[in-house]
Amino acid sequence: MAARELKAGEYVYLVPTLPTVPSAAYRRPLCEVVTTYGERVRVALGDGTEIETDTRNVVRTLPDLTPRDPRPCPRRPMPDGFEEVPLW
């Protein structure tokens, strides 16, 4: 989302996209855009705190939060007759 698309007073959601995202983005809060300049945007959270972040960390609508399929077991099962020995 380019900065020119955002306007002051518009409501957006913070989402964790980049490694440098503020920790508040993991709650995916609804925020109000305060100012935009270049690829940076300053948003105000619901409690009044303002956060400056990259425009890639804000979206207009929340992404679909459907649960993912479970990952397969990373280790192959032990063959018959073998057992796993604990290291401690």
Give a brief outline of the structure.
By secondary structure, the protein is mostly beta strands. It has a domain at 3-59: SH3 type barrels (Roll). It has strands at residues 11-14, 30-37, 40-44, 50-54, 58-59.
What does this structure look like?
- With 88 residues, the protein is mostly beta strands.
- Helix content is 0%, strand content 27%.
- The chain has strands spanning 11-14, 30-37, 40-44, 50-54, 58-59.
- A hairpin with a 2-residue loop joins strand 2 and strand 3.
How are the SSEs placed, and which strands pair?
Blueprint: E1 11-14, E2 30-37, E3 40-44, E4 50-54, E5 58-59
Antiparallel strand pairs: 1-2, 1-5, 2-3, 3-4
Keywords:
mainly beta; SH3 type barrels; five-stranded antiparallel β-sheet
The stretches of 5 or more residues where confidence is low (pLDDT under 50) are none
Mean pLDDT: 85
- By DSSP (H or I, 4+ residues per run), the number of helices equals 0
Distance between the termini: 51 Å
Q: Bin the helical content.
A: under 10%
How is the main sheet built? Answer: 5 strands, antiparallel
Strand content: 25-35%
Q: Spell the H/E element sequence.
A: EEEEE
Class per helix and strand makeup: mainly beta
CATH architecture title of the domain at 3-59: Roll
User: Spatial order of the strands in the main sheet?
Assistant: 4-3-2-1-5
| Rg over alpha carbons | 21 Å
